[in-house]
Amino acid sequence: MSASLYLVAMIAVPAIGAAAVAALPRERGLLAKQVTLGVSLVVLLLAVLATAAFDVDGDRFQLTTSVSWIPDFGAEFALGVDGIALVMLLLIGVLVPLVVTASWHEADHGPRPTRVFFAWLLLLEAMMVGVFVATDVLLFYVFFEAMLVPMYFLIGSFGGPRRQYAAVKFFLYSLVGGLIMLAAVIGLYVVSTSQLGEGTFAFDALRQLDIDPEVQKLLFLGFFVAFAIKAPLVPFHTWLPDSGAEAPIGGSVLLVGVLDKVGTFGFLRYCLPLFPDASRFFAPFVLVLAVVGILYAALLAMGQSDMKRLVSYTSISHFGFIALGIFAFTTEAGTGAVLYMVNHGLATGLLFLVVGMLISRGGSRQIGDYGGVAAKAPLLAGAFLVAGLASLALPGTNSFVSEFLVLIGSFPERPVFTVVATVGIILAALYILLMYQRTMHGPPRGVLLQQDAAEPAPGLGTGGATATATATRTAAPGTLRVLDLSRRELVVVAPLVALIIGLGVYPQPLLDLIEPAVSATMSDLGGTDR
Amino acid sequence: MPAEGLLAASWLLIALPLAGAAVLLLGGRRTDRWGHLLGTATVVAAFVLAVACTVQLAGLDQRSADVELFTFIRSGELDVTAGLLYDPLSAIFALLITGVGSLIHVYSIGYMAHDPARRRFFAYLNLFVAAMLLLVLGNSFVALYVGWEGVGLASYLLIAFWYTRPAAATAAKKAFIMNRVGDVGLAIAIFVMFAQLGTTSYAGVFGSVGTLAGGTITAIGLLLLLGACGKSGQFPLQAWLPDAMEGPTPVSALIHAATMVTAGVYLIARSAPIYDLAPTARAVVLAIGAGTLLIGAIAGCAYDDIKKVLAYSTVSQIGYMFLAVGLGPAGYVAGLAHLLAHGFFKAGLFLGAGSVMHAMNDSVDMRRFGALWKKLPVTFATFGLGYLALIGFPFLSGYFTKDAIIEAALDRGDVWGWVLGGVAVLGAGLTAFYMTRLMLMTFFGRARWEDGVHPHEAPTVMTAPMVVLAVGSVGAGALLVSVFPLSGWLEPVFGEPAEAAHVVAPAVIGLVVTVVMLLGVLAAWLFVGRREVPVTAPVRVSPVTRAARNALYADTVNESLFMRPGQWLTRALVWLDNRGVDGAVNGLAAGLGGTSSRLARTQTGFVRSYAMGMLGGAVLVAGALLAVTAG
């Protein structure tokens, strides 16, 4: 297969897979899962092949394909990747098979057929790939909106008790944002018509336009609001805790890990290069939103009693760091922000997955319903801790590198914002360690507590050796009924732990991929870069 | 200069214990039977390697070796190479960490023998040694920061080792959070260095720091100091260290006495070229050292928990070290000599305390000890030598190293020299008081043991390290000050030692300090030794005692200034976010397309909302197009 077809295949394979899975008979649930896993692994392979074919020193956009799509508007089905899009494809490639494996039994007992869940998942993957590889602004907009549909149904059909409310809220917010962006896309087209003679949606052509600063401001805001809802920045954020909490775990992972990154990706791909003057004009306002968001969402995370809502709020805080990195307008901070997008997908992805594994054992999302789990499930606790430490950006984990780059890169340009943001690392330690202590440490407690001590617990003897020393030190009122990670769950956790630590020690290969695209963006901006 | 020979392999110092930790953590229960042996072997091997490296270093002309490993983070102007710097300063720390670390690993084999999670303990201990070595061997502030937070993690894991105890879990979290407050300072200092100098490596920063404005250098110095205070339990971030005693006692000995908590002293000594240009920052170091010295010593006088007394003693002794390095070139060597000597005698004291606890069913309440000298002869002898070394009994370690600090303070020659020297002498008296009180309550007097306690001496695997450390407690001071002067060894780092001014003759200082020390011993005997020790602490005590028992209300201040307002703020924000921000947007959505609950109920409602959304969007599109054409 020619390298230029990798991107087409990355959209087509999961889309066709989705159709095939949806067409399976209702009782072939297992086959649906197997096909989905197979397809998602093919996409991972394609992402790796695309990376291998990508020349770091080559053109900005590579592996390009372009087919005329709506000739009347000059819209093309144009695909291509720069280093930024490429690392997002790798993230999608890695996350989806893990999500499929983690969600193996997600839809087994629901009212809706298993195949539907997995078909939506594959369709979502196709749309997510599309949104990152589109180099035509109208095509990007179509993927941006189309991406909502599978996620809407994943939340609305397979989510928690308040799934309907969450799904509609998610849809309305995104829709409003999308429509505002559509207005800006059309506006951009009008400008291109007046400047180039004939209208175009091609990113590379639009990038060359010389747009009046006042018009830039309007168009910037059109894109910005859509992306700020998606990313989300405070105060556009209130849909995320509901969606993150009510979505099935796999949906939460992809929502926060990938979907929301379309917002920050959009800042970098569209807002900065297309509207450089407006970007500079609005940068202080965006930075205020970013830094307020870091602290505000972190404080809110500390106040949550629902684990999934807590993780959602931590993500809003993290998106503040990403936005800070993007709007500081330096290569270091921008590179850090893109790396942050990948690392956050891995770290928060793992955190959501492990929280989901805990919830699947206890049937409750409330932190207060758990306690002392580490004694019975050391592997689960260990994975939880690694995910948590990555989330608080401990050195040695991947997130440290990106957070450090964002902060050290932003400081020379924006010292005050950076110093305030740095205080966020104390709050990050608080919200993670509070949750960890309450669920994993302390005496055994809560919904997993063995009610009848005479009945042999299924969890006994599976890795319970750890810390029974304390049995003599504290009079344990009962033992927990909890199984440690199963083999399937280990398969989900192990690659993420390996990536978190591996990229924490040796991040340079990813940085080498990302940096050229970021410096190109900074030169589009007409660089305040030093 | 680039490292050759063994020094080029000095990264193995870090890799060995790190590999040990990895094997023990990933190997799981399969490694239960031999995990502790592997964990000990990696640290002993690292010690042997550190000795060999240091011997090779001593033979070099330049006595400094760079080891470049790989590119860690390179983007734009930022280029952080993972690399090590093996020089006389990092060498003495590497020897201390691996040497005392080996002894404590050996001791732990016995101390943790009956703990089913012993393997996990050794894994964390190995992780700590690796991170601590990275902290002192790294060749840049970023490498230091990575090790800095790494030891914080190891400290967290080990304090919370018995995590089913809520107190242990809470103490671990508190330690991590308070350390992070300091880490923010360290991080921002690194940002300033990069912004102003474009580099974070020691060579780069120290080479060009002189080009900066004085205010900037002072800011860097103060930010680094904030980090140092967090890690070293200095005012105002001292409250976590006594709570950290919830961890197993070998942890208290290694991490919270001998090594990790001295990292702040290392940071300030390492950053000497910065502080040399920042007299204001250096003055703050002095003030914090002197203040913390007294805070720790006063609190140490009032506690009945043997480990907490030792912990406050550590706070106080590190205060001495801060005071010393705050004095600048005159004090660096004295501070580091005290650090090394303290590493020996305080580690030995903690191991002795562990042995006492071992004998007393894990009790730490000195009011229930007494008369243990006969039952625990080895512990008594080794602990006693550590005690004498700490209070500065003539010709033992503390005598030399503490006097050197006092001498350096007085040699300032100004009124502040007298103030600081006076504080240090007063501290010596207080140290003698609280340590004598501890000795009397633990080893002498009547046995006040709880029922069912049958004290017995610890096994050889535990007593042997105690003996080695006791020997070090006795000899380290004389060795470092007179026989094998540390000042000469550290000359490549701090320059040639200046001729001492001798404002007061050393012999006079020695005499005065000894007299004050004896007064402290006498006072302790009058208060504690002469009378029967009540098994419960007296309730009606003077305000001074009450303040000391509450460690001068550090926790109270932290709680009322930060914790409780923080909780209120969090609660208020959660309310605001649910009602205010979300409510406003929900109201907007309701206005646009009917109530969201009704929308959710029926498919029709959903479609209608979509239509409404489309309409709203179309209006916006039209508006935008108008604006664009008008523009």
Can you walk through the features of this model?
The complex is a heterodimer of chains A (530) and B (631). Chain A is built from 20 helices and four strands. Chain A has 530 residues and is mostly helical. Chain A has a domain at 275-452 and 478-507 and 524-530. In chain A, strand 1 (62-70) and strand 2 (75-81) form a beta hairpin. Chain A is globular and about 75 Å long. Mean pLDDT of chain A is 90; it is low at 452-476. Chain B folds into two domains: 133-555, no CATH class; 556-630, no CATH class. Helices cover 72% and strands 3% of the residues of chain B. Chain B is built from 26 helices and two strands. Chain B has a two-stranded antiparallel ribbon with strand order 1-2. In chain B, helix 3 packs antiparallel against helix 10. The longest helix of chain B is centred in the last third of the chain and has 40 residues, at 554-593. Chain B is globular. Classes of the chains: A mainly alpha (530), B mainly alpha (631).
Gyration radius from CA atoms of chain A, angstroms: 23 Å
Number of beta strands of chain B: 2
Strand order within the widest sheet of chain B? Answer: 1-2
Oligomer state of the chains in this structure: heterodimer
Beta-strand proportion of chain A: under 5%
Task: State the end-to-end CA separation of chain B.
Answer: 64 Å
What number of structural domains do the residues of chain B give? 2
Q: What overall geometry of chain B do the principal axes of the alpha carbons give?
A: globular
Average pLDDT taken over every residue of chain A:
90
Number of helices of chain B: 26
* Average pLDDT metric of chain B: 88
Backbone CA Rg of chain B: 28 Å
- Poorly predicted regions of chain B: 593-605
Which helices and strands appear, and what pairs or packs with what?
The complex is a heterodimer of chains A (530) and B (631).
Chain A: H1 6-23, H2 29-53, E1 62-70, E2 75-81, H3 83-102, H4 114-133, H5 137-146, H6 148-158, H7 163-196, H8 203-207, H9 213-230, H10 239-246, H11 249-259, H12 261-274, H13 276-302, H14 307-327, H15 331-362, E3 370-371, H16 378-391, H17 398-410, H18 415-440, E4 445-446, H19 487-505, H20 508-524
Antiparallel strand pairs in A: 1-2, 3-4
Chain B: H1 12-27, H2 35-59, E1 65-75, E2 78-86, H3 88-111, H4 118-137, H5 141-159, H6 166-197, H7 202-208, H8 214-232, H9 240-243, H10 249-258, H11 263-270, H12 272-275, H13 279-300, H14 306-326, H15 329-359, H16 377-391, H17 397-410, H18 415-443, H19 460-483, H20 486-489, H21 491-494, H22 506-529, H23 543-549, H24 554-593, H25 596-601, H26 603-630
Antiparallel strand pairs in B: 1-2
Domain NADH-Ubiquinone oxidoreductase (complex I) chain 5 N-terminal (chain B): 73-122
Subcellular location (chain B): Endomembrane system; Membrane
Protein name (chain B): NADH dehydrogenase subunit L
